[in-house]
Amino acid sequence: MTTHAGTETRGFQAEVKQLLKLMIHSLYSHREIFLRELISNASDACDKLRFSSLADPALLADAGQLEIRIDFDSKARTITVTDTGLGMTRDEAVEHLGTIAKSGTAEFFSRLTGDAQKDSQLIGQFGVGFYSSFIVADRVEVRSRKAGQPAATGVRWTSEGAGEFTVEDIERAERGTSVVLHLKEDAAEFADAFRLRQLVRRYSDHIAFPVLLRPDGGQGEYDRANQAQALWTRQKQDLSDDEYREFYRHVSHDPGEPLAWSHHRVEGRREYTALLYVPSAAPFDLYNRDAPRGLKLYVRRVFILDDAEQFLPLYLRFVKGVVDSGDLPLNVSRELLQQDREVEAIRGAITRRVLDLLAQLAENEPDKYRKFWKEFGAVLKEGLAEDDEWMVGYLGEYEGKPLKDAAKGALGLEALVPEGERKAAQLTASALEPLWQRIAGRLGDRVAGVRASERLTDSPSCLVREEHDLGPQLRRLLEAAGQSLPPSRAWLELNPSHPLVRRLDALADGDEFDDVATLLHEQAVLAEGGQLSDPAAFVRRINRLIGAASAPRIVTPGAD
């Protein structure tokens, strides 16, 4: 089989075959969504090219402006959706149009309800929108050329949706992609100017690029079918709730409706616009903290990133929307976003906006807030554990019970321990006093001291600060804000009954004792969310200890 020249026919991935069967046979009653998905894909291609051209302006040199064109031929029953965006190479066409991520496909099928209208809305959410073409077409042809590549590198991809597709090299003068739908007889209604314009206005009016349509489908002049103005740049009073809801579906790929939204523009010292949505239902990957998340980032209406997680804390990862900055550089990267103080200021302001929105929802629409809490309450609680050490100090008590930081000062748990157990623990701790001194001597000024712990049960070690010392999370927040803080040293508390502590007590002074003592301290630092000064040394230390523990025991012949 050839892979880069001539014509070849390939079979679809098994998951694609299953998906195509669903598209063709099960979503017939809501098939108009094909145009929404094709225009959305075309818009993404234009966004990607505009971003790529920031580093390589020559990519825009071989064609006119970024736009989306719709042509149709009523007699031939064809619709062609063309974009002047990034385009695809032959290999990319095979990869993007012949396969889809298996994990996403499995999740897609698990969400199907049997209701055609609801199921059709899932298509864009899982990145399979292109295949909706086969709801109305019995043959689909894709012609494409990657921006910046010569005309001879064009590719044509063709399929009838029956299990295989054909790819071949072609000449294509224009960059970008054209998707040609050869409509089924009972879908001829879509090859009509009025019908197409109606669908563009309903589903794609907010697309930031011009969507152009010839009134007669022939050789006449194109006119604009959408407003081609980024929705978030328009005045709130000029937007209807339906427009906000439709844009939410576009930006989130969520088939449902948003529970609430906030649209605001900030001017003055820093300038940005944010349109933020709270979904009404949790996404399937809500509890995967490593899944892509964040807001769509634009700089002066130029698309930059699809999932800029730097503008919201992790516990608000369910929020969807866009932020458009007037101050950030167009060549901003993820790495720069993490270090930019302007971004940190916007993040703080956007976070307050979301929390204010939720507070208003709780006060004014308690039924909606109860729905929100059912879907996202557990994630919101993560914020108390991750950001809000200061919150516990501010609250002081909850339902009449004083709040106590378990990592500060004495806990006063003596009354909860039976007298016999308490005395035994005291004797054990006293017997290990020489060990505490040996460890303290090894760790030096990294700790305030070493002592037995009354708060540990399963863990071998933890760090404990004095009652009024700043905790590690609050220190990090203040240091990130530019404040200079005096050095702080915590006590290392050890669990006298833990096997690792018992092993350490049995070791003589030397390298192995030093490794175990240092490891106990490093474990405590990591457990409270701190960072090690020398992670490589930590790894070497663990490897040495594992190697020593797993070394084969040598038995001398004749020995007992």
Structure description:
The chain has 3 domains: 7-229, Heat Shock Protein 90, CATH 3.30.565.10; 232-387, 2-Layer Sandwich (Ribosomal Protein S5, domain 2), CATH 3.30.230.80; 414-550, Four Helix Bundle (Hemerythrin (Met), subunit A), CATH 1.20.120. With 560 residues, the protein is α+β, with helices and mostly antiparallel strands. The termini are far apart. The strands form 4 sheets. Strands 1-6-5-4-7-3-2-8-9 form a 9-stranded mixed sheet, with helices on one face. Strands 10-11-14-12-13 form a 5-stranded mixed sheet, sandwiched between helices. It has helices at residues 14-26, 33-55, 90-98, 102-110, 116-125, 193-203, 241-252, 334-339, 341-364, 366-386, 389-395, 419-431, 433-443, 472-480, 499-506, 511-527, 535-550; strands at residues 7-11, 68-73, 78-83, 137-145, 154-159, 164-170, 176-183, 211-213, 223-224, 258-266, 272-279, 295-299, 302-308, 320-325, 397-398, 401-402, 449-452, 461-464, 491-494. A hairpin with an 8-residue loop joins β4 and β5 (154-159). The chain has 17 helices and 19 strands. α9 runs antiparallel to α10 (366-386). The chain is 39% helix and 18% strand. The protein is elongated and about 95 Å long.
